[in-house]
Amino acid sequence: MKLIVQGATLAQKDKDAFVRHSQASSIEETADKVWRFNAAKDSDIAAIAQLSSGLCADYAFLPTDAKLEDYKLLVMDMDCTFIQIECIDEIADLYGVKEQVASITHASMNGELDFNESLTRRVALLEGLDESALQKVFDEKLRLSPGAETMLQTLQDAGVKTLLVSGGFTFFTEKLKSQYKLDYTRANTLEIKDGKLTGKILGDIVNAEEKAKTLLNCCEQLGISPKETIAIGDGANDLRMLHAAGLSIAYHAKPKVKQQAQISFDYIGLDGVVNLFK
Q1: Which of 77, 89, 234, 271 is catalytic?
Q2: Is 266 a catalytic residue?
Q3: Report field, pTM of the whole predicted structure over 0.90
Q4: What pairing do the DSSP bridges indicate for beta strands 2-6 and 34-38?
């Protein structure tokens, strides 16, 4: 396998330690603070994880022959993955109910609360809010996660299709789709009447099952295997989607998600996806 370490300038003693724990045959720096250890073994992952954490770096094992061309579809969660904020929490902040909403969000993303129940409860707290608050959040609060544009541009240039699938809202996913030329999006639709949020969702809720189903449906539409997908998420409602993908990445994620994803990024940005294949 190859061991990729990202996010730190390695001193010689660090390089020696990684070589010792991975039994790698050679090492090279493929980009700034990105190191590849060739012919590595993953038999001592605990030591490598501890070493990486001490350096505030992320590590990943991949097959030696793994390359970007193996993948045809990138599937991303939106809130706290593709973008830096949790949109519903920021909407709630404008209505003075952020503390109540954020506590429900936290429990849901940690897998402590059913997602459908959590979203229904959170959206209900927004009843009566003027729809202009959504645009205000988009304009003033929403920012892409570090490295997101580099990742997108590189993968799009390589012909990889992009799917943004979110337990959040279509108001944001559709704007991001247009702005960043995403191929597909799926999210929840807020009911709005007379310019006010009603506190309800229209149609089926996009939960963990729907996220995975959307990934599989998109693969079928493209005529590709789920093994040809990269999926990135951070919360418990992303787990089924991550399990369905060929390569799963937990991005600055909750502990439960980090434990189950193949790769975890705790320190670096989304451009780390590109660096896996350099």
Answers
A1: 77
A2: no
A3: yes
A4: antiparallel
